[in-house]
């Protein structure tokens, strides 16, 4: 009688940590579901938008960048108007000079052309994907760099993160200066707000995987709970 009890006690001692280990690992395994949607979208300047400090005195884009972590596949959303442009460059000289007139096509992209036709000021929103690792600069190239010199500029360090999603892997997305090929479907059309092309079909496929995976985990959890109940009941009698 005593022996049986001690045996029961021993197997309990062995089984319980094992079960907890299983439960813990199943919890950890269900985490990739949240890791999958790690691509982030940032709104530049938050509610202030993308303007120079003569128009919005409180803008401070480097402060906005702060300690944010930018990775491949993230998007920067620029909310501005057609009196301000969006220039992205990998070339420090271009950035420092606030001038992209002499910039090479392979290191500078004009995402939105300022149109200083003051008669018709319209809002502009652009989604700019981060497709290259390393330091990336943004500024407004309008008025010979005047807006850039008035605080409309910032730099970020793009890290690898989880790498580019399939939707952004096509070379044309990475290299094309947007305005030169408005009918290329694989790049965001500079003349329309956020292209639906970025709603990558593969993304929805990816969404499915963690869901069914989580389902399996949940089933596994249920079974483990039943097993634990069974073990507890067995220990009781
Ligand atoms: C950015 O990444 C660093 C190092 O990976 C981390 O310590 C920090 O908390 C992150 N910052 C934010 C705002 O996520
Ligand atoms: C940066 O751009 C300037 C033109 O603005 C060019 O002369 C220079 O070679 C570029 N630097 C690099 C490293 O490509
Ligand atoms: C457009 O921007 C320039 C330079 O920042 C500024 O002087 C001008 O007032 C702006 N035009 C309008 C209509 O806001
Ligand atoms: C950018 O971030 C990477 C990864 O954190 C780091 O290794 C690299 O030194 C950074 N580059 C600069 C210029 O700060
Ligand atoms: C970020 O923006 C892109 C482009 O508009 C969109 O396809 C994607 O679903 C957005 N991602 C998140 C997490 O909101």
Please tell me the overall pLDDT: 72
Rough shape? globular
- Rounded to the nearest angstrom, the distance between the terminal CA atoms is 12 Å
Q: Could you give the count of β-strands?
A: 8
- The chain-level structural class is alpha/beta
Instruction: Report the bound ligands by name, code or SMILES.
Output: 2-acetamido-2-deoxy-beta-D-glucopyranose
Instruction: Tell me about the largest β-sheet.
Output: 5 strands, mixed
CATH topology name of the domain at 41-159, in short, is Immunoglobulin-like
- Rg (C-alpha, Å): 27 Å
Q: Which class of the domain at 41-159 in CATH terms?
A: Mainly Beta
The CATH superfamily of the domain at 41-159 is identified as: Cupredoxins -  blue copper proteins
Which sequence of SSEs, written as H and E, runs from N to C?
HHEHEEEHEEEHEHH
Uncertain runs with pLDDT below 50, 5 residues or more?
19-37, 173-217
Binned strand content: 15-25%
Count of helices?
A: 7
Strand order of the largest sheet: 2-8-7-4-5
- Identify the CATH architecture of the domain at 41-159: Sandwich
């Amino acid at each position: 009688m005593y022996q049986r009890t001690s045996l029961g006690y021993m197997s309990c001692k062995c089984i319980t940590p094992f079960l907890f280990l299983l439960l813990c690992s199943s919890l950890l395994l269900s985490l990739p579901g949240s890791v999958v949607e790690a691509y982030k979208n940032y709104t530049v300047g938050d509610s202030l938008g993308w303007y120079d400090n003569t128009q919005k005195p409180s803008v401070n884009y480097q402060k906005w960048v702060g300690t944010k972590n930018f990775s491949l596949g993230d998007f920067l959303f620029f909310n501005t108007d057609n009196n301000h442009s969006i220039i992205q460059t990998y070339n420090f000289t271009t950035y420092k000079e606030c001038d992209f007139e002499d910039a090479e096509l392979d290191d500078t992209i004009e995402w939105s052309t300022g149109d200083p036709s003051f008669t018709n000021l319209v809002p502009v929103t652009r989604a700019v994907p981060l497709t290259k690792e390393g330091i990336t600069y943004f500024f407004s190239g309008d008025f010979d760099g005047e807006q850039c010199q008035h605080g409309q500029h910032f730099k970020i360090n793009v890290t690898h993160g989880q790498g580019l999603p399939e939707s952004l892997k096509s070379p044309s997305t990475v290299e094309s200066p947007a305005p030169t090929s408005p009918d290329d479907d694989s790049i965001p059309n500079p003349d329309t707000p956020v292209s639906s092309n970025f709603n990558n079909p593969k993304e929805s496929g990816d969404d499915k995987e963690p869901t069914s995976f989580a389902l399996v985990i949940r089933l596994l959890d249920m079974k483990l709970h039943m097993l634990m109940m069974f073990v507890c009941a067995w220990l009781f009698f």
